[in-house]
Protein backbone atom coordinates (compact mmCIF):
# COMPACT_ATOMS: atom_id res chain seq x y z
CA UNK A 1 0.00 0.00 0.00
CA UNK A 2 1.31 3.45 -0.87
CA UNK A 3 2.20 5.88 1.91
CA UNK A 4 -0.26 8.46 3.20
CA UNK A 5 -0.04 11.93 1.71
CA UNK A 6 0.62 14.77 4.14
CA UNK A 7 -0.98 18.16 3.44
CA UNK A 8 0.08 21.00 5.77
CA UNK A 9 -2.73 23.55 6.16
CA UNK A 10 -1.48 27.05 5.40
CA UNK A 11 -4.20 28.50 7.66
CA UNK A 12 -1.84 27.82 10.57
CA UNK A 13 1.21 29.39 8.89
CA UNK A 14 2.69 32.75 9.90
CA UNK A 15 1.06 35.12 7.40
CA UNK A 16 3.75 37.72 8.03
CA UNK A 17 6.28 35.13 6.85
CA UNK A 18 4.22 33.33 4.27
CA UNK A 19 6.95 32.84 1.70
CA UNK A 20 9.26 31.37 4.35
CA UNK A 21 6.56 28.91 5.45
CA UNK A 22 5.78 27.93 1.85
CA UNK A 23 9.47 27.27 1.18
CA UNK A 24 9.55 25.14 4.35
CA UNK A 25 6.75 22.98 2.93
CA UNK A 26 8.50 22.87 -0.48
CA UNK A 27 11.64 21.51 1.15
CA UNK A 28 9.80 19.07 3.45
CA UNK A 29 8.47 15.54 3.01
CA UNK A 30 4.94 16.96 2.68
CA UNK A 31 3.01 16.08 -0.46
CA UNK A 32 0.38 18.81 -0.87
CA UNK A 33 -0.44 22.36 0.23
CA UNK A 34 -3.88 22.54 1.86
CA UNK A 35 -5.50 25.95 1.44
CA UNK A 36 -8.62 26.92 3.41
CA UNK A 37 -10.91 29.55 1.92
CA UNK A 38 -13.65 30.76 4.32
CA UNK A 39 -16.34 33.31 3.52
CA UNK A 40 -17.78 34.16 6.93
CA UNK A 41 -21.18 32.86 5.78
CA UNK A 42 -20.84 29.10 5.30
CA UNK A 43 -18.52 29.09 8.32
CA UNK A 44 -18.25 31.64 11.16
CA UNK A 45 -14.79 32.85 10.11
CA UNK A 46 -13.07 34.59 7.19
CA UNK A 47 -9.61 33.33 6.20
CA UNK A 48 -8.17 34.86 3.04
CA UNK A 49 -9.06 35.15 -0.62
CA UNK A 50 -7.79 35.40 -4.15
CA UNK A 51 -4.74 37.72 -3.84
CA UNK A 52 -3.30 35.58 -1.04
CA UNK A 53 -3.94 32.36 -2.94
CA UNK A 54 -2.19 33.91 -5.94
CA UNK A 55 0.82 34.71 -3.79
CA UNK A 56 0.86 31.14 -2.43
CA UNK A 57 0.65 29.43 -5.83
CA UNK A 58 3.47 31.63 -7.09
CA UNK A 59 5.86 29.88 -4.68
CA UNK A 60 4.23 26.49 -4.02
CA UNK A 61 6.02 23.65 -5.80
CA UNK A 62 3.60 20.88 -4.76
CA UNK A 63 -0.01 20.00 -5.46
CA UNK A 64 -2.33 22.83 -4.38
CA UNK A 65 -5.40 21.42 -2.62
CA UNK A 66 -8.03 24.14 -2.15
CA UNK A 67 -10.82 23.62 0.40
CA UNK A 68 -13.72 26.01 -0.20
CA UNK A 69 -15.82 26.70 2.89
CA UNK A 70 -18.08 29.10 1.02
CA UNK A 71 -21.70 29.27 -0.08
CA UNK A 72 -22.47 28.99 -3.81
CA UNK A 73 -18.99 27.76 -4.81
CA UNK A 74 -20.03 27.44 -8.49
CA UNK A 75 -19.56 31.20 -8.87
CA UNK A 76 -15.81 30.88 -8.33
CA UNK A 77 -14.78 27.62 -10.04
CA UNK A 78 -13.15 29.34 -13.03
CA UNK A 79 -11.39 31.84 -10.77
CA UNK A 80 -9.84 29.13 -8.59
CA UNK A 81 -8.69 27.23 -11.67
CA UNK A 82 -7.01 30.37 -13.02
CA UNK A 83 -5.29 30.93 -9.66
CA UNK A 84 -3.49 27.59 -9.91
CA UNK A 85 -5.62 25.16 -7.88
CA UNK A 86 -4.94 21.51 -8.69
CA UNK A 87 -7.75 20.11 -6.54
CA UNK A 88 -10.92 22.04 -5.75
CA UNK A 89 -13.06 20.79 -2.86
CA UNK A 90 -16.57 22.06 -2.26
CA UNK A 91 -18.83 21.29 0.70
CA UNK A 92 -21.69 18.87 0.13
CA UNK A 93 -23.76 21.10 2.43
CA UNK A 94 -23.18 24.12 0.17
CA UNK A 95 -24.17 22.51 -3.14
CA UNK A 96 -27.74 22.16 -4.40
CA UNK A 97 -26.62 20.53 -7.66
CA UNK A 98 -23.51 18.65 -6.59
CA UNK A 99 -23.24 16.54 -9.74
CA UNK A 100 -23.24 19.65 -11.92
CA UNK A 101 -20.65 21.33 -9.69
CA UNK A 102 -18.31 18.32 -9.93
CA UNK A 103 -18.51 18.33 -13.72
CA UNK A 104 -17.81 22.06 -13.79
CA UNK A 105 -14.68 21.61 -11.63
CA UNK A 106 -13.37 18.84 -13.88
CA UNK A 107 -14.10 20.77 -17.05
CA UNK A 108 -11.66 23.42 -15.76
CA UNK A 109 -8.94 20.75 -15.56
CA UNK A 110 -8.95 20.32 -11.77
CA UNK A 111 -9.58 17.26 -9.61
CA UNK A 112 -12.94 17.43 -7.86
CA UNK A 113 -13.31 17.07 -4.09
CA UNK A 114 -16.33 16.99 -1.78
CA UNK A 115 -16.08 17.80 1.93
CA UNK A 116 -18.54 16.48 4.52
CA UNK A 117 -19.22 18.19 7.83
CA UNK A 118 -19.00 16.00 10.94
CA UNK A 119 -22.81 15.65 11.06
CA UNK A 120 -23.17 14.57 7.41
CA UNK A 121 -23.36 10.84 6.72
CA UNK A 122 -21.09 9.38 4.05
CA UNK A 123 -24.20 7.72 2.58
CA UNK A 124 -25.15 10.98 0.83
CA UNK A 125 -22.29 10.28 -1.61
CA UNK A 126 -23.61 6.88 -2.71
CA UNK A 127 -24.75 8.28 -6.08
CA UNK A 128 -21.83 10.58 -6.84
CA UNK A 129 -18.79 8.71 -5.52
CA UNK A 130 -17.81 7.59 -9.03
CA UNK A 131 -17.48 11.27 -10.00
CA UNK A 132 -15.43 12.34 -6.96
CA UNK A 133 -11.61 12.34 -6.91
CA UNK A 134 -11.33 13.23 -3.22
CA UNK A 135 -13.67 13.08 -0.22
CA UNK A 136 -12.60 15.37 2.61
CA UNK A 137 -14.01 14.14 5.91
CA UNK A 138 -14.13 17.01 8.38
CA UNK A 139 -12.88 15.74 11.71
CA UNK A 140 -13.67 19.10 13.36
CA UNK A 141 -16.44 21.60 12.62
CA UNK A 142 -15.07 23.73 9.77
CA UNK A 143 -14.08 27.33 10.41
CA UNK A 144 -11.06 27.24 12.69
CA UNK A 145 -7.72 25.54 13.10
CA UNK A 146 -6.54 24.12 16.41
CA UNK A 147 -9.71 22.24 17.43
CA UNK A 148 -9.80 18.71 18.82
CA UNK A 149 -10.33 15.68 16.65
CA UNK A 150 -13.86 14.17 16.64
CA UNK A 151 -13.49 10.44 17.35
CA UNK A 152 -16.50 9.34 15.25
CA UNK A 153 -14.34 10.14 12.21
CA UNK A 154 -12.72 6.70 12.45
CA UNK A 155 -16.12 5.05 11.77
CA UNK A 156 -16.75 7.37 8.85
CA UNK A 157 -13.38 6.56 7.26
CA UNK A 158 -14.09 2.81 7.49
CA UNK A 159 -17.60 3.21 6.04
CA UNK A 160 -16.36 5.43 3.22
CA UNK A 161 -13.49 3.07 2.43
CA UNK A 162 -16.00 0.20 2.15
CA UNK A 163 -18.18 2.25 -0.21
CA UNK A 164 -15.20 3.13 -2.42
CA UNK A 165 -14.07 -0.50 -2.56
CA UNK A 166 -17.57 -1.73 -3.35
CA UNK A 167 -17.94 0.79 -6.18
CA UNK A 168 -14.38 0.23 -7.40
CA UNK A 169 -13.54 3.94 -7.72
CA UNK A 170 -10.13 5.59 -7.26
CA UNK A 171 -11.48 8.21 -4.82
CA UNK A 172 -9.02 9.37 -2.16
CA UNK A 173 -10.06 9.89 1.47
CA UNK A 174 -8.72 13.05 3.15
CA UNK A 175 -9.02 13.85 6.85
CA UNK A 176 -9.16 17.49 7.90
CA UNK A 177 -8.98 18.80 11.47
CA UNK A 178 -7.17 17.91 14.66
CA UNK A 179 -4.71 15.52 13.01
CA UNK A 180 -1.71 14.68 15.22
CA UNK A 181 0.71 11.80 15.78
CA UNK A 182 -1.93 10.34 18.14
CA UNK A 183 -4.49 9.66 15.40
CA UNK A 184 -2.41 9.60 12.17
CA UNK A 185 -1.61 5.88 12.13
CA UNK A 186 -5.15 4.85 13.16
CA UNK A 187 -6.55 7.01 10.35
CA UNK A 188 -4.17 5.47 7.82
CA UNK A 189 -5.10 1.95 8.95
CA UNK A 190 -8.81 2.83 8.71
CA UNK A 191 -8.29 3.81 5.04
CA UNK A 192 -7.28 7.48 4.91
CA UNK A 193 -5.08 8.50 1.96
CA UNK A 194 -4.41 12.17 2.80
CA UNK A 195 -3.93 13.81 6.20
CA UNK A 196 -4.29 17.58 6.55
CA UNK A 197 -2.39 19.04 9.50
CA UNK A 198 -2.35 22.72 10.43
CA UNK A 199 -1.56 23.56 14.04
CA UNK A 200 0.25 20.31 14.69
CA UNK A 201 2.80 21.23 12.01
CA UNK A 202 3.08 25.02 12.18
CA UNK A 203 2.82 25.49 15.94
CA UNK A 204 5.46 22.84 16.58
CA UNK A 205 9.04 23.67 17.43
CA UNK A 206 10.37 22.11 14.26
CA UNK A 207 7.74 21.94 11.49
CA UNK A 208 10.09 20.07 9.13
CA UNK A 209 10.59 17.23 11.57
CA UNK A 210 6.89 17.20 12.52
CA UNK A 211 6.01 16.65 8.85
CA UNK A 212 8.64 13.93 8.69
CA UNK A 213 7.17 12.31 11.81
CA UNK A 214 3.64 12.26 10.33
CA UNK A 215 4.97 10.92 7.04
CA UNK A 216 6.92 8.12 8.67
CA UNK A 217 4.10 7.17 11.06
CA UNK A 218 1.90 6.55 8.06
CA UNK A 219 4.30 4.87 5.64
C1 LIG B 1 -10.77 23.86 9.38
C2 LIG B 1 -9.87 23.75 8.18
C3 LIG B 1 -8.66 22.92 8.41
C4 LIG B 1 -7.73 23.49 9.46
C5 LIG B 1 -7.05 22.33 10.14
O1 LIG B 1 -11.95 24.47 9.01
O2 LIG B 1 -10.56 23.16 7.10
O3 LIG B 1 -7.96 22.65 7.22
O4 LIG B 1 -6.77 24.36 8.92
O5 LIG B 1 -6.33 22.82 11.20
P1 LIG B 1 -5.83 21.92 12.40
O6 LIG B 1 -4.93 20.87 11.82
O7 LIG B 1 -5.14 22.90 13.28
O8 LIG B 1 -7.07 21.31 13.04
ZN1 LIG C 1 -9.39 22.45 5.32
Number of strands: 8
Give the spatial strand order of the biggest sheet. 1-8-7-6-5-4-3-2
Structural class: alpha/beta
- Characterize the main sheet: 8 strands, parallel
CATH level 1 class label: Alpha Beta
User: What's the name of the CATH homologous superfamily?
Assistant: Aldolase class I
Supply the CATH architecture. Answer: Alpha-Beta Barrel
Task: Give structural notes.
This protein is of the alpha/beta class and 219 residues long. It has helices spanning 18-26, 50-59, 77-82, 98-107, 153-167, 184-190, 199-202, 207-217, and strands spanning 5-8, 32-38, 63-69, 87-91, 111-116, 134-138, 172-176, 194-197. It has a single domain (5-217), classed as Aldolase class I (TIM Barrel). Helix 4 (98-107) links the parallel strand 4 (87-91) and strand 5 (111-116). The structure holds D-xylitol-5-phosphate and zinc ion. Residues 9, 34, 36, 67, 176, 196 line the site of zinc ion (ZN).
